[in-house]
Amino acid sequence: MINSELSPVRLLVVDEEKCIGCRACSNLWAEISSALTFSDKGPQRTIKFPRTFEEFEARIAESLAEACPTGAISVALADERQKEESFTLTFQLVRCRRCRTPFATVEEVKYVIDRLPEDLRSQSSAVSWMELCPSCRRSAEREAAARDLIVVRSGSRR
Amino acid sequence: MEIYVDLGRCICCHACEVACEREHGEPKISVGSVRDRASVPVSCHQCEVAPCAHVCPSGALSMGDMVSFDGSKCTRCGFCLLACPFGAIDADLTSMIQKCDLCPGREVPACVLTCPTEALIFGYREDATRELRRRAAKRIAQSYAAAVGRDRA
Fold first, then answer.
1. Which of A1, A53, A100, A155 would suit a FRET pair with B51, their CA atoms being 20 to 30 Å apart?
2. Which of B40, B75, B79 sits opposite A142 (nearest CB)?
3. Which residues of A touch B32 (CB under 8 A)?
């Protein structure tokens, strides 16, 4: 039998400087999704992490750290439970230039732009789509594709 | 290979969406009308230099003859969604990324096969432009023939 007083407690450690507020950790598994609280309210995203997670298997803890794209998550061992049960990180969300809906954290947008193909990034105007939410990009794409056709069809109705 | 669109033929009937949903469970193509004058189906463009694959941290999205997606590697971080210039990746991030896979089990994708007006064309760029050129030539020939017919009458 395991002596609970001697078995180490796993602590979830999140580096606030590195975490960009994406969903990789909270969406990984149902067990984790239920332990992490992820919410977008107005222009702010909050993620509430559990501090101690001895109930999770070590394998899950490792996968959690592995899934984090920025290496912000690590697992530490402690002798006893921490007083705080959870901790919260907050992020500012970027609003879509067109519909004003908040769609991603400031840090997420920066992370993605930094990793776009070189030749796209080198033209400053080329990544302008990053200011739009995915659904407005789709609308913009439709409008651009249909522009000529609309001119032709509008003309023939006169 | 990619799905190309002959925009003049799209009638916004949503048959492609239905066909895709029957094939995959979720539609990975979406049609919408623009100012009631035209309609445009949008799905993955299978970019040669794909922003989604560039930002994917887990290697779930990769570039080759098409942009392939391996669901087992996906962490659902949502970066691909943010990177796609066309809004062509759909995701309810609590379930899974939805991106056109060109129906690997079929010779021709279900949406292309179903499109009643043949607005969707599947193939390489050269095949698609050849077909579009052929159609344009036919339209010109028909309107010319009609004009000649009117003159004779």
1. A100
2. B40
3. 138-139, 142
In sequence order, the 6+-apart residues with CB closer than 8 A to the CB of B44 are B28, B67, B88, B89, B99, B100
The verdict on a CB contact (< 8 Å) between B42 and A141 is yes
Q: Write down how long chain A is.
A: 158
When CB atoms are compared, the residue of B49, B83, B94 closest to A112 is B83
Summarised one tens digit per residue, pLDDT across range A71-90 is 999 888 877 766 777 889 99
Alpha helices in B8-78 (DSSP H): 15-24, 51-55
In 3D space, the residue among A67, A118, A74 whose CA is nearest the CA of residue B56 turns out to be A67
Give the pLDDT band (50/70/90) at residue A1.
very low
Please enumerate in sequence order all residues whose Cβ is within 8 A of that of A10, keeping only pairs 6 or more positions apart, or say none: A52, A53, A54, A56, A58, A61, A75, A76, A77, A78
* pLDDT at B129 (0 to 100): 94
Torsions phi, psi of A108, nearest 5?
Answer: -60, -45
B96 closest CA partner among B52, B60, B49: B60
Nearest to B29 by CA among B101, B104, B96: B101
Contacts of A23 in chain B (CB under 8 A): 76-78, 93
Angstrom distance (rounded) from CA B63 to CA B14? 29
The CA radius of gyration of chain A, in Å to the nearest whole number, is: 22
DSSP for B99-124, written as a single string: -----TTSSS-HHHHH-TT--EEEE-
**What amino acid is encoded at B72 in this protein?**
S
Cβ–Cβ gap A134/B87 under 8 Å: yes
Query: How crowded is residue A57: how many other Cβ atoms within 10 Å of its Cβ?
Result: 12
Mean pLDDT of successive 10-residue stretches along chain B, which has 153 residues: 93 96 92 93 93 94 92 90 91 77 94 96 93 93 86 70
* Confidence at residue B41, expressed as pLDDT on a 0 to 100 scale: 96
Q: Do A109 and B82 touch (CB under 8 A)?
A: yes
